[in-house]
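Render this sequence as a predicted structure.
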Amino acid sequence: MIKRSSWSIPYLAFLILFVALPLVLILVYALQDGTGHFTLSNITRFFSDKDSLSTFAVSIEVAVENTLLCILLGYPAAWILANKKLNRSAVTIILFMLPMWINALMRTLATAELFNMFGITLGKGTLLFGMVYDYLPFMIYPIYNVLDRMDNSYAEAAGDLGATPWTVFWKVTVPLSMPGVRSGILMVFMPTVSTFAISEFLTNNKIKLFGTIIQENINSSMWNYGAALAFIMLIIIGITTVLTGGRDAEAAGGAI
């Protein structure tokens, strides 16, 4: 009989080829110059490149604004979906999932065409609209998963002790749902910083994000500097994961 552990070999090979190896290649290219010699100039160049720093600052600004908008819109939606008194139909949940079944690029192109059809000038407003449209489900479902699995006895106990519904919400529901919020922040913030297609189509490339300059360097065959920018992005992702509580976020998003 084949050992049960042998079934993990294909998955291990997949992880090595398509996860570990690309990350190693990014690090290797980031720490080399054009002749293949070791150098840190690609990393240090980022901190002296005004265009890259400016683009990075804009990316962080857009990512923060998009994340806050997704929280403001996504938390009430998740609460309504998880509230059995307000939502008793699984159809409502499916309606929120439907946009995720369509390719993100197709949704972005359709959104840009709608703006063009109504004569709306493309800029930061249209960019944030498209960002929220694309990433809102990734904020809703982690929060919904936590709220849906939440033990209602906590809220009932608070009500029995005289707490008002508003107090129960702020003192019980919101704190217990924080793992879902942290997961949603992680799933919205980092893709917003690193994306390039949405900003390209919804601003006519007027606003560049961090992913855009990575793409431009790779397309211009500046592999080493592009890899260095990607490596910096990986570091930011790691720091963000730690700050948002990686284990709690993983647990909250696991049921999506």
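Summary. The chain has 13 helices and no strands. The chain has one domain: 50-253.
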